[in-house]
Amino acid sequence: MEAMMTGMINNIFFIIFPIILYQMFATAGQRNFFVSHRITMTILFSISIILCMVFPYQFLTEDYIFDLRQVPMIVGALYGGPLVSAVLFIVSAVGRIAIGGDGMYIAILNQLLVAAGVPFLGPLYRKVNRWWKAALVFIISIVSLLFNMFAGYFFFGDPIHNLIGIWLMLMLNQGGIIILTALLIEHLQKQEYLYNSLMRHEKMETVSHFAAAVSHELRNPLQSVKGFVQLLQEYEYPRAKQLEFQQTILEEIKVAEDLIDDYLIYAKPVYGEMKRIEVEPELSHVIKIMTPYANARNVEIFVQGSDAASPILGDSQKLHQALVNIIRNGIEAMTDGGKLQVELETSAHTVCVHIQDEGVGMTKEQVKRLGEPYFSNKSKGTGLGLMVTYSILNQMGGDITVESEVGKGTKFTLEFPKLPNG
Ligand code: ADP
Ligand code: MG
After folding, report:
1. Half-sphere exposure of 195 (CA within 13 A, CB side)
2. pLDDT digits (tens, 9 = 90+) for 187-235
3. What is the domain partition of the chain in residue ranges?
4. Which residues contact 29 (CB under 8 A, 6 or more apart)?
5. Where does the chain cross the membrane (predicted)?
6. Mutate-to-test residue for ligand 1 from 321, 329, 414, highest number of ligand atoms within 8 A of CB
7. What is the CATH topology of the domain spanning 206-271?
8. Ligand 2 ion: residues within 5 Å (CB)
9. What's the CA-to-centroid distance between 58 and ligand 2, angstroms?
């Protein structure tokens, strides 16, 4: 009995551990990593299957040896779809052949049916709520074991002894564990979903804050378009002059368009893959987006940038969000206006962005609490900006340091590991 428990717990560990590992390394803010990381998922579930098969356990009696490989196979097929399922089948079939012995054909046939059949239930599975999901995996798991039982009986004349004592127990055992596994994955996905909506919420809050400043900036190009159109209506200008005015009108419209585009791009939800990006153009873009907001608050942004290459591994949308949050805080800290210095500094192994304001500053205690969710000293603050920023930096392997003095100002430094040039 004790050996059985140990063996079973090992099997459970083989299944659960890769899922947790997966969650740990997956980057939050992705649409859904059980969908967008099919390859990682396949590898991890393959490892689960192999470990389960290599370390099976005796189930209740001496002569019944069992393992939980069906759990990752079924779960993998449901979440991953036909392709993942096919790879998991190959892994488990090869593994089963390597083990050899009685029951090999039944086991492989069973794995084939699971791998081929279960993906068809995927669409249904994704639609239902988690209690139905639990029921569905439980039923699939039982049907699969029933198949084993009857196949042994019909094809090989294995008597079905101890229907209740062994088979029913087996079904409850595997069924319970597969429910646990499915619920765990659902839970992790829900966490991720909540995190993503938090990030979106923070972003929308920022965007709506910008709206007033942007509409103000839009007034300039619109006013000049209006002026030129009125001129063209009132006087009969020579053709050359008309063309010149029309050109100016087009340029002003372009200015307005770009302004709107910048905001629309920024307002897009952030999902994305980590890839090689240059910090310098991204920083310039962010400063462009922030300028109307700064102007509206009498803040002037000064930029000192090195022209050196600044390649890092990251996602440009997320980098924008991180920079916007910090620059926005700097602008908001200067209630009577002032200067915001932004500096890009690259060294052999790092790319640093320094953002320094002349605002209210913070006490040591306040600095310690930065990044805590809902920590805000502003009457209308969300206290989510820096939380999101810290988590983005974390994903990119970066670091944030803060130097601050009450009444003098604050300097945030974002440090990223630099990728090799070229
Ligand atoms: P919010 O801006 O919505 O309050 P944040 O997470 O962006 O939330 O910031 C949390 C708090 O940290 C702010 O309320 C503010 O008190 C403090 N803070 C952040 N940046 C600065 C800064 N540059 N100068 C002074 N205080 C700051
Ligand atoms: Mg903020």
Report:
1. 21
2. 988 888 888 788 878 888 888 888 888 888 889 899 999 999 999 999 9
3. 2-201, 206-271, 275-417
4. 195, 196, 199, 270, 271, 272, 315, 318, 392, 395
5. 12-33, 39-59, 71-91, 103-122, 134-156, 162-185
6. 329
7. Helix Hairpins (1.10.287)
8. 329, 385
9. 58
